[in-house]
Amino acid sequence: MALNRSMHPRNRYKDRPPDFAYLASKYPEFQQHVQTNLAGGVMLNFKDPEAVRALTCTLLKEDFGLSIEIPLERLIPTVPLRLNYIHWVEDLIGSRGDGEAQRRGIDIGTGASCIYPLLGATMNDWHFLATEVDDICYNYAKKNVEQNNLSDLIKVVKVPQKTLLMDALKEESSIIYDFCMCNPPFFANQLEAQGVNSRNSRRPPPSSVNTGGVTEIMAEGGELEFVKRIIHDSLQLKRRLRWYSCMLGKKCSLTPLKEELRKQGVPKVTHTEFCQGRTMRWALAWSFYEDVLVPSPPSKKRKMEKVRKPLTFSILQPTIRELQIKASACDSSQNSIVQAVAAWLENTLSDLKVLHKRVPSGASELSLFLTAAENTWIHVRQKRREHARQVPRAPPGAVTAPGAQSPQTHTAVCSAETAGQYSGNGQQSGGARGDEPDSGRDVAMESAPEQEAASSVKEEAPSAQEVDPSTVQPTTPGTPPHFLFKCLLNVKPEAVGVLVEMHWVEGQNKDQMNQLCTYLKNAVLRTVTKPQ
């Protein structure tokens, strides 16, 4: 699961991403959807709707005590994103003082999960009026409320198609609500839902499966017209709600909607960003009350320098024992697991002609400062592939000598090395957050998850020792005048073995460091499996 340091500060997943291994050990229905990679990380296929549903249901059960059911043919919400919205609404309406009435909110189009009312009622004792136009979603929403014993706080109502606020509040004429919230259908038509008209051609394809019924992901005019209809209703209801709010899937929708509110003379308007992984959402809120406190929108001059997460991979204990045996045969001083791994890395980097030098580090770890002048690891792979093509195929029926590697096996190893550039946490590198939804209204795990996300990696980038590249110089023959990149490589112990981190310092292209990380990760596996 890819999460983001820019999530709402109160979001429980900001600093503690879900532990897939722990969840799999506790919940059998979740365990059947996880896989373990070669590095020992637990991964989930976010293109499998059943896996996404299992994750959502498991997180709600583990962290909030909620048991829900969601049909596969309806929208499967992602928990961290929904929490971001809930926390922002908390910022809008403020804390309830002693003697104040219970907070009341409206969820427009609550969906089968009824997730906003369930979270709001469980976390804050909020009362909710949850509306829904789809029969299947309505029935599931009522069932989810009832089976969590929250019927006294949440009222689910079935409303006619295209009903937003006006008709839904006809029977609630005496109640003043504190807020409304809504996930509008993002798309105007089927082509846009498939990304034909709305998705930048330079962006990678969506990393999560697209679920959701027609009424959930599509509406006439898309989200822009949908929210304009809510604005039109708010102009008639005005002070019946203290805050009106909507979540947006496209950044380009924000400016015209703010302009519409300005034209209508709405006195209080604000917006925010919801950041989770590579998925971005935007939210807009407005009020006709002069006395409300307006949270400041994200600053246009916000700090652009983001803390880069290191590329990481783990070396497990059985592999380390093999490295220790080989290291002790050459140097009896290389006893510790960190020293054995570091010695192997130094030998491999020397073979690749990557300049490196040990720099001060913590007591239990070891750090190397790397300067790569040439992409030699690509050359090694190319030579291996050329060699594999030159090795003649064994005739039918021929017996391969014990321990020998067949040409087909060798080629498969080469193919595995060159298949995509992945960072050590199991996510595919590259690609930027876009202004449009990845798939459906929000199925990318605060995404999304990338293709498969390893939960074993901690979200926060470990605090690497600060190294000034201008003061730390690699060993002879000296730093070349032109280099591909410089990075800090940390080797530190962890519960399952040793963790290798590569922290970007500077250079031409971070993809080069991704490639070297992938090469080292594959090379250590080849080293211990190579016949003696």
3D structure, described in words:
The structure is a single chain. Helices cover 33% and strands 18% of the residues. It has 532 residues and is an alpha/beta fold. It folds into two domains: 77-287, Rossmann fold (3-Layer(aba) Sandwich); 311-391 and 403-443 and 462-529, no CATH class. The model is unreliable at 187-199, 212-218 and 397-477 (pLDDT under 50). One of its GO terms (cellular component) is cytoplasm. This is U6 small nuclear RNA (adenine-(43)-N(6))-methyltransferase. It is found in: Cytoplasm; Nucleus.
Please count the beta strands (DSSP E, at least 2 residues each): 15
- State the helicity in percent bands: 25-40%
> What order do the helices and strands follow?
HHEEHHEHEHEEHHHEHEEEHHEEHHEEEH
Largest sheet: 7 strands, mixed
* Binned strand content: 15-25%
Domains, number: 2
What oligomeric arrangement do these chains adopt?
A: single chain
- CATH architecture descriptor of the largest domain: 3-Layer(aba) Sandwich
User: Class of the largest domain, according to the CATH hierarchy?
Assistant: Alpha Beta
N- to C-terminal separation?
39 Å
Number of DSSP helical runs: 15
User: CATH superfamily of the largest domain, called what?
Assistant: Vaccinia Virus protein VP39
Q: How would you state the average pLDDT, rounded?
A: 76
Rounded to the nearest angstrom, the radius of gyration is 27 Å
Give the overall form: elongated
CATH topology (level 3) name of the largest domain: Rossmann fold
Overall structural class, as computed from helix and strand content, comes to alpha/beta
Uncertain residue ranges: 187-199, 212-218, 397-477
